[in-house]
């Protein structure tokens, strides 16, 4: 079997053509250039030097993460593009698995560490074990063991894990020079660092391990392949922090909000309202329909019907990733304000008996239990707790 192997998950860019029992070619650089500049020219040069025909490869093995977000995207796009063009399957090889596999036969705990910034690393714990052959021969094939799957952890937590194992550890990866002093201060077990010729990513190791994965059916089409980031990008983390700290803003719902509300309905409820039902509700004069927005995103919504001097909440919901960030409370507060301006004296609602978080929210907002409707809800069947709140109407 012959595979093209690609790894651009870290500072090193590396490509190789690997067969079952040999590496045909390997091209590795660890220099101050972006992978978008180097990766395709490296593949082209390697293929040209050995007169290879990419049509003859059986699969493409690619380091699928964790690692640099930009590097992983470049490697993923390159592998997917070649896979689609050549109609070849892709083999997803976890980055740190391949780094550990390059230490073939080592019986220490093998600990690749890639710098994830903020005193965190991408890592995993591995080793090679040996077992006696049943036929009594001297042939000894090391068995690759995954002691802890790849993860993103603080360095201090990694040190704590390693001290528990009480075994010698061999480190490799671009995180070594960054956290060498922290490791020296915290480790209570013997340790060493891999030499320069084996302390970074190697596409040959990605290819060799990829062949093993392929043989047990661990491969996918180019269209299916997705890199594995383990952690959100800095931009995504900053956005999440902004959203968490932003104050929810509530406004009246418009017809243009119908599609977004219908989409949230289908994500949150088994008995979702259709867009048509939502728009029909909006058109009625006896309704109060509100939208909550947080950091420019639609965070949640509330639909209530009015009759005489009462308003009954028919629907209140917040998207899962923005729950417990004040959107529901803001919706209830705005509903109270609208009701007060319209002379409504009482707000009613019902809630699943098992929805403890919602019940606690309503109680903290001044709602009191009035009774129970047995087996009112379906999917699953559950009682409904009836709740209400009396409003103070300013004269």
Describe the model.
The model has no long low-confidence stretch (mean pLDDT 90). The strands form three sheets. The chain has a seven-stranded mixed β-sheet with strand order 11-12-13-14-15-17-16, sandwiched between helices. The chain is of the alpha/beta class and 395 residues long. The longest helix is centred in the first third of the chain and has 18 residues. The chain contains eleven helices and 17 strands. Helix 1 crosses helix 2 and helix 4 crosses helix 5.
Strands, helices and their partners?
Layout: E1 2-7, E2 13-19, E3 23-29, H1 35-49, E4 59-63, H2 69-86, E5 90-93, H3 95-101, E6 109-115, E7 120-129, E8 143-154, H4 155-165, E9 169-172, H5 176-186, E10 191-193, H6 203-215, H7 234-245, E11 249-252, H8 258-268, H9 275-283, E12 287-294, E13 297-307, E14 310-318, H10 327-341, E15 346-352, H11 356-364, E16 368-377, E17 382-390
Parallel strand pairs: 1-4, 4-5, 6-9, 9-10, 14-15
Antiparallel strand pairs: 1-2, 2-3, 6-7, 7-8, 11-12, 12-13, 13-14, 15-17, 16-17
Question: Keywords for this structure?
Answer:
elongated, alpha/beta, 33% helix, seven-stranded mixed sheet, five-stranded mixed sheet, 395 residues, 11 helices, single chain
Stretches with pLDDT under 50, minimum 5 residues: none
Class based on secondary structure composition and strand pairing: alpha/beta
Helix content: 25-40%
Oligomeric description of these chains: single chain
Which strand-content bin applies to the residues?
A: 25-35%
Large-scale geometry: elongated
Mean residue pLDDT: 90
Main beta sheet, described?
7 strands, mixed
End-to-end distance = 85 Å
């Amino acid at each position: 079997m012959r595979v093209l192997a690609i790894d651009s998950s870290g500072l090193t860019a590396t490509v190789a053509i690997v067969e079952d029992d040999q590496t045909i070619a390997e091209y590795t650089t660890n220099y101050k250039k972006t992978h978008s500049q180097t990766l395709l020219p490296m593949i082209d040069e390697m293929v040209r030097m050995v007169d290879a025909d990419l049509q003859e490869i059986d699969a493409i093995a690619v380091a699928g993460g964790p690692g640099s977000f930009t590097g992983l995207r470049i490697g993923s796009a390159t592998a997917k593009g070649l896979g689609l063009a050549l109609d070849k399957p892709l083999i997803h090889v976890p980055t740190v698995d391949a780094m550990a596999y390059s230490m073939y036969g080592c019986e220490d705990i093998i600990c690749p560490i890639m710098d994830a910034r903020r005193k965190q690393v991408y890592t995993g714990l591995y080793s090679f074990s040996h077992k006696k052959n049943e036929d009594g021969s001297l042939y000894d094939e090391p068995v690759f063991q995954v002691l802890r799957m790849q993860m993103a952890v603080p360095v201090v937590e990694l040190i704590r894990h390693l001290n528990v194992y009480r075994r010698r550890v061999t480190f490799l990866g671009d995180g070594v020079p960054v956290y060498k002093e922290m490791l020296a201060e915290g480790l209570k077990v013997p340790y060493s660092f891999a030499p320069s010729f084996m302390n970074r990513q190697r596409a040959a190791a990605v290819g060799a391990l990829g062949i093993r994965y392929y043989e047990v059916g661990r491969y996918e089409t180019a269209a299916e392949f997705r890199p594995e980031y383990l952690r959100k990008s800095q931009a995504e983390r900053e956005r999440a922090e902004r959203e968490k700290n932003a104050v929810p803003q509530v406004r009246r719902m418009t017809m243009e909000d119908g599609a977004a509300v219908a989409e949230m309905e289908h994500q949150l409820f088994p008995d979702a309202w259709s867009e048509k039902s939502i728009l029909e509700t909006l058109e009625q004069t006896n309704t109060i329909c509100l939208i909550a927005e947080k950091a420019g995103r639609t965070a949640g919504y509330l639909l209530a019907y009015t009759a005489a001097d009462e308003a009954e909440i028919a629907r209140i919901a917040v998207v899962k990733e923005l729950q417990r960030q004040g959107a529901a409370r803001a919706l209830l507060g705005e509903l109270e304000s609208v009701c007060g301006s319209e002379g409504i004296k009482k707000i009613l609602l019902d809630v699943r008996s098992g929805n403890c978080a919602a019940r606690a929210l309503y109680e903290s907002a001044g709602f009191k239990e009035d009774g129970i409707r047995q087996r009112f809800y379906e999917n699953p069947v559950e009682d409904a707790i009836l709740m209400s709140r009396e409003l103070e109407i300013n004269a």
